[in-house]
């Protein structure tokens, strides 16, 4: 069986992948500064014999594998950047770069991409069309646009033109050995915002001479909570959170200014725009009613990641085929986190998958924790699925494009 061959090839490179993952983990680099990581990826891809393109959004790298037969092009995306935080894992390969840590598994994603490259180049004769491996910087760079957006602007989906995309993320909520996905939204849009409230300062004992921005801000926070409960369809989803309330310098002084910062998460563009409109109205009118002035600075960040139905079906078949029926998980509801893979999904039919690393009766630290780590057996699981999916993709008929 061909699956036996894939399993054997993956087993042969498992230690090789783990070594690369640990080396990348040891020397993490933040968004837009993935210079050594990028160079490492280039070196490995060139040693494997892939066509390599560099310079997408400075550190982005592309490896191209052209199959024996001509055809369409499938893109596989792997993010490379780390988070700016101190590591607290005590791993033997813990970060040597102070204040930077691979706390979201992108070291694993990059190693998975290298493993897929190593296998698919060996299986070139089985590939119909082209495989474009996209090693992306700056996924964590919200709200500055994300590396996916800028790689697309730099032409990463062209020459050869990419017809569909696949992305994945290591996921603690799924058990090790399983992979899951769903049709439609799987990750939320992520929109940060800042509210600046201007009042009139005075001594705390003379409130009648002030316009208190703290009171205005408090009322704005309360009023904003009505948006989800009273303006969003109960069958839709939205999250609105104020995470920072900054104001004042002394206990006995009413300040001149207060700043609020928050985030909105949605899955539907109409709901996304409606929430923004209501925030703006509530912020400005509440402040005006109370004698102050408020300005909203709203950043439309990463859009929601929307999975294409036919691409999900292709992924579902690949997962069940290579891992077994019981190791495919149908995701019931999307995550509220943002993901810049969404920009790829807006351009071409796409599927985004979650690769499990959770274990029963064992604590697993989630992404963005300073103690984050994952079971490295998940690397091989992901490679098997991506290789199988890439080979199945070539068999999709031209008149049955995944759109």
Would you kindly provide a written description of the structure presented here, covering whatever features stand out?
This protein is α/β, with parallel strands linked by helices. The protein has nine helices and 17 strands. It has an eight-stranded mixed sheet with strand order 1-2-4-3-5-17-6-15, with helices on both faces. A four-stranded antiparallel sheet has the order 10-12-8-13, with helices on one face. Strands 14-7-16 form a three-stranded mixed sheet. InterPro entries: Amidohydrolase, Bact_exopeptidase_dim_dom, Peptidase_M20, Peptidase_M20_dimer. This is Peptidase M20 dimerisation domain-containing protein. One of its GO terms (molecular function) is N-acetyldiaminopimelate deacetylase activity.
| CATH hierarchy: architecture of the largest domain | 3-Layer(aba) Sandwich
CATH superfamily placement of the largest domain: Zn peptidases
Low-confidence spans: pLDDT under 50, at least 5 residues? none
Terminal CA distance reads: 31 Å
CATH topology of the largest domain: Aminopeptidase
Estimate the global geometry from the Cα principal axes.
Answer: elongated
Query: Would you tell me the structural class of the helices and strands?
Result: alpha/beta
Nearest-integer average pLDDT: 96
Major sheet description:
8 strands, mixed
Strand content: 25-35%
User: What is the helix content?
Assistant: 25-40%
- Put simply, the count of helices is 9
| Strand element count | 17
Pfam family, one: Peptidase_M20
Keywords: Hydrolase, Manganese, Metal-binding
Protein name: Peptidase M20 dimerisation domain-containing protein
Binding site for Mn(2+): 104, 106, 140, 169, 368
